[in-house]
Amino acid sequence: MALRGALFLAAATAYILGKVRGESVPLRIFSAVVLSAAWLLLSVEMVLRFFPSPTESMGCQRQFAVNYRPTGYPPVPPRNQRRQTVWVVLVWLALNGGIGVLYFTHIIDRDILVLISLAYAVCDMICILLFCPFQVLFFKNKCCNTCRIYNWDFAMMFTPLVFAPGFFNYSLLAMGIILLLRWEITLRRHPERFYELSNQSLDCAHCRERLCNQKTHIHRLRLQIMAELKAELNDLREEIQERADEFRNKK
């Protein structure tokens, strides 16, 4: 996460400085070095996803036969999973379609598309480590180990690059799409690997990461803050109502 964050901040800083200097392509000099390094880093990450790895999360590694530990039960998808997946696709296409409209109407430029993709890369790590809107709003799954769209991440983060043709952009997007397609094909051929009911490797007892504990604390803190804000708003509403009543009584 730190490396992705550093790449995004460096690119954003270079873009702002380039705009201040009046350059037509603010990331031109920057892209020759840092964006090439970003391309290499992200490409290596994607290539490694094609092979089993003990250092990767079980969320994406469950597609491999080596990580399948049968429970004896048939694979049963969570209720409404297909509908939730369709909603995610529609929302993501709408979001990035809006970005495309902004690009083709010249409200944002090509470099902004690169910055958005780098921002998506940072958000991907935030989803894993801190808070995932797909988990909370759509799938309601317990953790990343059972995430329906885990290996969609690279295809999703490079979606804005579809509007900016070029070798670096399209090669990243192509690798991300190939990862997504492999995930979907494996899911259909070997669904038993993807669900906790049929694969012991996804059970909490075999989890090595325990990221759910961190997310649980953050979720509780978020609920607490929202409850406190709601209470303060109620107090403010009551105070305003009292003053309004006093004003009417004086009249």
Unreliable stretches covering 5 or more consecutive residues? none
Overall 3D geometry?
flat
For the report, how would you describe the main beta sheet? none
Beta fraction: under 5%
Written description of the protein model:
The protein is mainly alpha-helical and 251 residues long. It has helices at 2-20, 28-49, 58-61, 81-104, 110-129, 133-139, 153-157, 167-189, 211-250. α1 (2-20) packs antiparallel against α2 (28-49), α1 runs antiparallel to α5 (110-129) and α2 (28-49) packs parallel to α8. The mean pLDDT is 86.
List the helices and strands and how they pair.
Layout: H1 2-20, H2 28-49, H3 58-61, H4 81-104, H5 110-129, H6 133-139, H7 153-157, H8 167-189, H9 211-250
Helix pairs in contact: 1-2, 1-5, 2-8
Q: How would you concisely characterize the structure shown here?
A:
By secondary structure, the chain is an all-alpha fold. 65% of the residues lie in helices and 0% in strands.
